[in-house]
Specification:
Elements lengths: L2 H12 L1 H7 L1
């Protein structure tokens, strides 16, 4: 797993709303 994937997972866990809105 690259850093980008880890970062996205961390963001989605800390701010699921932000992640959903970004999509």
């Amino acid at each position: 797993m690259n850093k980008m994937s880890e970062l996205k997972i961390a963001v989605s866990r800390s701010c699921p709303d932000c992640f959903s809105t970004h999509r």
